[in-house]
Design a protein that fits this description.
300 residues; alpha/beta; Rossmann fold; 8-stranded mixed beta sheet; two-stranded antiparallel sheet; globular
Length: 300
């Protein structure tokens, strides 16, 4: 596995943040790549993809979003939202002296990329949305909200592995024991003889606050408020740049109907489906890798 260095920068309000920095191999002629993980994940999710991209001559920064991995936890949990995360990415671009990059966003990372496209479109050369879009199925959303922030400390490694398997088995039905071990290593940190999830449990605070607000509106009016319309952000991201949607064939977050509406809204968008995988592909699958490499061939 190709080595990386630790890159640290600070958020606009001074929070220390971290990314894995993979140096490009050979002559550098194209823009860097910034990889952004999902809600409860971290930069380790790109430990397979990032070296492959760097080997083709692009610098890769795999981000730990605030509250995850080696990035600091925010003392104000209500700051855990895509708008704040996008501002952190702008600060990263400035600190790393990057004017333009290709963005690879898994789940929440794709939402952050869409938000970024709304106020700093010139920074995005191309984008990959990994199992995410302007619509999200309430089925998958409820599943993720059900476990986010609720994991405690495990005293044994076997317990940690079992937890990762329990919450992800439906998405990765073909995983074996070695796969679950590796998934757990990406998910947990060792601490004082036990194991804790590599994220701040308080990232769930804004999610629960939004759910409570929705419930209040529904109780008062008899109907739930409509979700925010994110198609303007998606169209801004799709405009005048290469775009790829990677979807897990059995995803419960981006169902086939949502994928079709996204493809209709952005006809030039490339599309790859990973068989036998749910939310979200790890981007080490052959179908995902081939599609990403094709996009990088055409991206600046």
């Amino acid at each position: 596995m190709q080595a990386f260095t630790d890159f640290f920068w600070t958020s606009p309000e001074g929070l220390p943040l971290h990314a894995r920095d993979y140096s490009p191999v050979g002559e550098v002629t194209k823009t860097p790549v910034i990889c952004i993980h999902g809600l409860t994940r971290n930069a380790r999710d790109f430990e397979d993809l990032a070296p492959r991209i760097a080997a083709k001559g692009r610098r890769v920064l795999a981000v730990d979003v605030r509250g995850r991995g080696l990035s600091a936890r925010d003392p104000n949990p209500m700051n855990y939202h895509p708008g704040m995360y996008a501002a952190d990415i702008v600060a990263l671009l400035e600190a790393a002296k990057i004017d333009k990059a290709v963005f690879v966003g898994t789940s929440m990372g794709g939402l952050i990329t869409m938000v970024l496209a709304s106020f700093k479109p010139e920074a995005i050369a191309a984008a990959v949305l990994n199992d995410v879009g302007p619509e999200i199925s309430p089925v998958g959303l409820a599943r993720i909200a059900g476990y986010t922030g609720r994991v405690g400390r495990f005293e044994t490694w076997d317990e940690a592995v079992a937890y990762v398997r329990d919450i992800n088995q439906a998405a990765f039905p073909d995983y074996g024991p070695e796969d679950w071990e590796r998934a757990a290593r990406r998910t947990f940190d060792a601490q004082d003889g036990g194991f804790i999830a590599a994220y701040d449990p308080d990232i769930a605070v804004p999610i629960r606050a939004a759910a409570e607000a929705t419930a209040r509106v529904q109780a008062e009016t008899g109907q739930a408020p409509p979700p925010p319309d994110m198609y303007p952000l998606f169209r801004a991201l799709a405009k005048d740049r290469p775009l790829l949607l990677v979807r897990g064939a059995i995803s419960d977050l981006i169902d086939p109907a949502i994928a079709e509406r996204m493809r209709a809204a952005a006809p030039h968008m490339a599309y790859a489906e990973v068989p036998g995988v749910g939310h979200a592909p790890m981007l080490d699958e052959p179908e995902a890798l081939a599609a990403i490499e094709n996009l990088l061939e055409t991206a600046p």
